[in-house]
Design goal:
Layout (H helix, E strand, L loop, with lengths): L8 E5 L4 H12 L4 E5 L11 H5 L3 E3 L6 H10 L4 E4 L12 H20 L5 E5 L24 H20 L2 E7 L1 E3 L12 H10 L4 E4 L5 E2 L1 E3 H11 L8 E4 L5 E2 H11 L6 E4 L14 H6 L7 H17 L1
This protein binds nicotinamide-adenine-dinucleotide.
Nicotinamide-adenine-dinucleotide binds next to helix 1, helix 4 and strand 7.
Amino acid sequence: MRPEIKGSTVLVTGGAGFIGSHLVDRLLDMEAKEVVIIDNLFLGSEDNLREAISRGAILYRDDAEFSTSLEYIFERHSIDIVFNCATKALNYSFMNPSNSFETNTKVVLNLLELQRKKVFSTLCHFSTSEVYGTAVYEPMDEKHPRNPTTLYAAGKAAADLAVETYVRMYDLDAFIIRPFNNYGPRQNHKGELAGVIPLTVYRVLNDIPLEIHGDGNQSRDFIYVTDTVEAILAVYGKLEKGESVNISTHNQVCIKEVIETIADAMGYQGEILRKPARGSDVYCHNASNDKLMGMISYNLTPFSEGLKKSIDWYVEVIKG
Ligand SMILES: NC(=O)c1ccc[n+]([C@@H]2O[C@H](COP(=O)([O-])OP(=O)(O)OC[C@H]3O[C@@H](n4cnc5c(N)ncnc54)[C@H](O)[C@@H]3O)[C@@H](O)[C@H]2O)c1
C-alpha cells in the first residue's frame, strides 16, 4: 500500500525550485507530518520557500548527486515518500552537457539505490516532455518514442529507463510523472537559464529588446504550475508501479504568441529581434492528456488568466 501524504514524512529533491516549491506548499496543506527538502540552490532559492519554512518545512542546502548527502538526511528523518524534482535547467545542457546529464541520472540512481535497500517506500520521479523530442505523431501520448535532442533530455530519458528497470527488477513502488511546459510564479527570471515568460517580463521591465528564436512558431503545451501540482497529487494514489503519465493541457501555444501577448499586456513599444533557431530546440510539443483525464478530473487555468497572474507576480518581484 502506498503511504498517504497526510501523516507521512516527505522528501522533495529540488524543492527550492519552481515546481518543487509549489509542491512543498501543497504537501504542507495536506498535512504531511514533515516536509524535508534537499536543494543545492543551483537555480532554486530560499525565497521560494520562505512561507513553507515558516510552516515547518526543513531545507538542506546540499547536493543530491552525492549519495552521502542523501544518506545523512535519511538518517535524520524517517522518510516515507520522495518526490524527485532536482534538475539543472535545460539551457544549462548547452553550456555543460555532461553535468546536465549527470544531475538527471545520478540523483535518481542514488534514490533508487536507497529505495532498493528499503530506506523509504515510494518514489514519484519527475520526467519531462523533452524526452519525446519533436513529435513523430501527434498528440504525443505516453507511448510516443523517446527521442531526446539535448543531453538534458537524454539524462531524463535515461532516468526514466532506470526507474522502470528498478521497478521490474526489485518491485519498487516508483512511478513517473511527465510534465509539459510549466509557467507561473517562482520560475527563474535571471540570466541565461531563465524561462521564456519570466525572461520576457524581465526584458520589458529593463528595456532590453525582446527576442524570438527561429520563426517563433515552435509550440509548447503550457500548463499553469499549480495545476501541475494538483494533478500530480491527484494521480499519486492511482498510478501503478513503473507507470508514467503526461501532465499537460492538450493545448498548444507558439512562442511568438507568448512573447507578443506579454509585450501587448505590458505596453512594450520596443523591438522584437529575430535570432537564429537553436539547433536542438524541439519544434512541436502537442501533448495528449487523455490518460491523465481518464484517471482524475482537474481544472485547468486558462492560458490568458495564468499568463496575467504570472506577469503580475514577476512585475512585483522584479521591481522589488
Ligand atoms: N518547468 C517545466 O516546465 C518542467 C517541464 C517538464 C518537467 N519538469 C521537471 O520538473 C522538475 C522540476 O523542474 P523546475 O522547473 O521546478 O526546475 P527548477 O530548476 O526550478 O528546480 C530544480 C531544482 O533542483 C535544484 N538542483 C539542481 N541540481 C541539484 C542537485 N544536484 N542537488 C539538489 N538540488 C539540485 C535546483 O537548485 C532547483 O531548485 C524537474 O525534474 C524538471 O525536469 C519541469
